[in-house]
Structure formats: structure tokens, C-alpha cells
Amino acid sequence: MERREPAAGRLEGKACVLFGAAGGIGLETARRFLEEGAQVLIGDYNADACRAAQARLEADGFTGRVDAARVDVTQEAEIEALLHRALERFGALDVVFNNAGIVGAIGPIIETEAEHWDATFAVMMRGVFLGVKHAARIMIDRDGGSIINTASIAGVASGILPTAYSAAKAAVVSFTRNAAAELADHRIRVNAVCPGIIFTPLMHQGREAQAEAVMREIQPWPDRGEPRHVANAVLYLASDESAFVTGEAHLVDGGYTANGLLRVHPLPGAKTRPDYAGISYGMTGQPRQVRRLP
Ligand SMILES: NC(=O)c1ccc[n+]([C@@H]2O[C@H](COP(=O)([O-])OP(=O)(O)OC[C@H]3O[C@@H](n4cnc5c(N)ncnc54)[C@H](O)[C@@H]3O)[C@@H](O)[C@H]2O)c1
User: Does residue 166 have its Cβ closer than 6 Å to ligand 1?
Assistant: First the structure.
């Protein structure tokens, strides 16, 4: 019988940078990458969460292949510096995951502050643009690479709140397609992942049971969406298994968008005017600024 070499990890020796990866989907993706042999640099706004993430991964046996540092993806110089830190530490840059996210501006459009709208786009869209820009600058001079941007079902389906969040995620999908076309010549693949309802604190905001009840109403697949479901899809897009896949917006949503309008029940309160407005900075550690509406 023909002897085969034992299969190497799917990301063996690959140098990977993950923005917004100190918790939730990003941290689980870092773990999957490490399990598959990658070297991983986590960048996140929340410095405490960065330290905790690195300590946890090291305790799980990944010492020497994991690094973490605070970064604000709204700051171009910080993104550039983090990517170069990976280059210096690992000697390469093969995969970049642009995953940072906040809830952003919340409340009715007529009550939304323009600065909250801009802050939402700064993290979710501008951060992705800058991540792609500086990753591509490095990858162009090398053998190409794979870039994955986190969008959302909110970017491809209508009727999902908050409005600013959904608009930014739709922009990520559009930008991903254009970037894929522009960078293909350089063998840089650019794809988006579009998670559905994934059980992280950013999604359920501490109201897990309520979120699960909503999920049961609108998602056809019976299981809860977990960070690992998304991490596995990102792993596929990062690895050579997806070598001919670029410009894709890959749904990981338990059939949420396949469900169509016929069986969709409105989210509680979705058709009524919210009685609050402001901005939530998600898991960054920055306080939420919300005011009650009259
Ligand atoms: N959980 C879901 O249901 C769901 C669904 C669709 C899309 N998403 C997207 O998935 C991504 C990860 O979300 P998650 O649910 O794991 O939540 P999360 O809050 O655990 O992860 C987001 C991370 O981004 C970091 N971050 C925020 N602003 C940043 C900044 N300016 N610079 C650097 N880092 C910053 C946060 O500190 C946090 O660690 C986000 O882009 C989110 O919009 C999540």
C-alpha cells in the first residue's frame, strides 16, 4: 500500500494576525489557527482581554507561537505597526483576519448622532479597509496571502438592527469583493465571513436566554451558533483548501438568511420605535453612552 506522510496542520508554519481577537469569534479563531500549526498575533483594543487571551492560550500549550498586543483599528499607524510586529516576530505574513467589531450607534435614525455613526464605521469599515491596505502592502512583496474580513448577515439581509452596524457590514461585503478583484494578480485572496446569531457577549449583551428564544423563532437550524462554527469557516478561508475562493461572502448562519421572509418573525421590539439612543462600544471596555428618549 502507498505510504503517505502524516498530514501537517492546515496552517502549519503560517504567520497570522487577528484583529479584534481577544474574545468571542476572534479568540476561538486564534485557537483553531494554533491547533492547525499557525503562529498567531492577536491585536485588540482591550488590553486586559489581550493579556488574558494570551495567558489562556499559553496555558493550553501554545507557548512560543502566540503573541498579543493592544491595537485600535481606527488608527492607521497602529494597524501598520502590528502587522510589522508579526513580520519581525514570525518572518512572514500569510493570513490577516479583520474581525474587530462593536455594536455601534443604536436607536432610531432621527435620534442618531453623526459622530456615533462615524465611530461605528471607523471600527467596522475603516478598520477593515486599513487592515486590507496594510496587509496587502506587505503580501504584495511576498507570495500573496489570505485576508478574511468579518461582515455579518446584517450586511446581506435587510431588517436587521442596528442600522449603522448593518450599513457598515454591507460596506464590508462590497469592499471585500472589490479588494479581491484588485489583489488577485498578486495572489492575495480576500473573502468575508458573514456570521448569523453567534452566542458571544457582544450578541446577547448578558441576556442569553432571551437571545436563545429569539434564535429559536427565526433560525431554521436547531443548534446555537457558537464561535467555533465561524472559526472553522475562517480556517477554511485562511488555508490552501480555499485556494480558488476569493471575493466570497461566506454565510455561517444556520440557515437564517435562507429562511426568507415567509417564516421570519420580527424580533421583539423590532417594529416599534426604540426608547433609547446612543452608542455601545461592545467588549472594548469603553462605557456605553445611552440616553432615554422622551
Ligand atoms: N456574535 C454575533 O452574533 C455576530 C454576528 C455577526 C457578526 N459578528 C461580528 O463578528 C466580529 C466578532 O464579534 P464577537 O461576537 O466575537 O464579539 P467580541 O466583542 O467578542 O469581539 C470583537 C472584538 O473586537 C474588539 N474591538 C472593538 N473595537 C476595536 C478597535 N477599535 N480596535 C481593536 N479591537 C477592537 C473588541 O475589544 C472585541 O474583543 C465582529 O466584527 C462582529 O460584528 C458577530
Answer: no
β-bridge pairing 276-280 and 104-106:
antiparallel
CA end-to-end span of the chain: 77
Of 193, 284, 286, 288, best ligand 1 pocket probe by most atoms within 8 Å of the beta carbon:
284
Out of 3.40.50.970, 3.40.50.300, 3.40.50.720, 3.40.1360.10, the CATH code matching 15-292 is 3.40.50.720
256 is catalytic: no
**Does residue 122 line the site of ligand 1, with CB under 6 A?**
no
pTM: 0.93
Digits of tens for pLDDT over the chain (294 positions)?
455 555 679 999 999 999 999 999 999 999 999 999 999 999 999 999 999 999 999 999 999 999 999 999 999 999 999 999 999 999 999 999 999 999 999 999 999 999 999 999 999 999 999 999 999 999 999 989 999 999 999 999 988 889 999 999 999 999 999 999 999 999 999 999 999 999 999 999 899 999 999 899 889 999 999 999 999 999 999 999 999 999 999 999 999 999 864 444 444 444 445 688 899 999 999 999 999 988
Cis? peptide before 268, omega within 30° of 0: no
Q: What cell numbers appear for 154 in the block?
A: 446584517
Q: Where are the domains of the chain?
A: 15-292
Distances (CA, A) of 228 to 199, 209, 214, 234: 10, 20, 21, 10
